[in-house]
Write a structure and sequence with these properties.
single chain, 88 residues, mainly beta, OB fold (Dihydrolipoamide Acetyltransferase, E2P), 5 strands
Length: 88
């Protein structure tokens, strides 16, 4: 599980039919949790907004956590962080 900050959104008018109707957000992964990319695109089924800190899962946990086990999802926002130590 990763922690990051939502910094933007992605609009895609043409996509896999299993993804239609979903929102995609750009998440900047916290420095101390980063293993690869600085930013990732994650499906958002919980309504996170730009500027909010979120919890993100990847891989099969993303598909299961978003309730879409058959969709081509690699990252999903599964929680909005209300408060926490070491967020920045």
């Amino acid at each position: 599980m990763l922690m990051g900050k939502v910094v933007g959104s992605v609009v895609s008018t043409r996509k896999n039919e299993n993804l239609v109707g979903n929102k995609f957000m750009i998440v900047e992964v916290a420095d101390h949790m980063r293993q690869g990319a600085k930013q990732i695109i994650a499906i958002d089924k919980i309504g996170a907004g730009i500027g909010e800190y979120v919890l993100v899962v990847q891989g099969s946990a993303a598909r299961i956590g978003s309730g879409m086990p058959e969709a081509p999802i690699d990252a999903a926002i599964v929680g909005i962080i209300d408060e926490g130590l070491g967020l920045e």
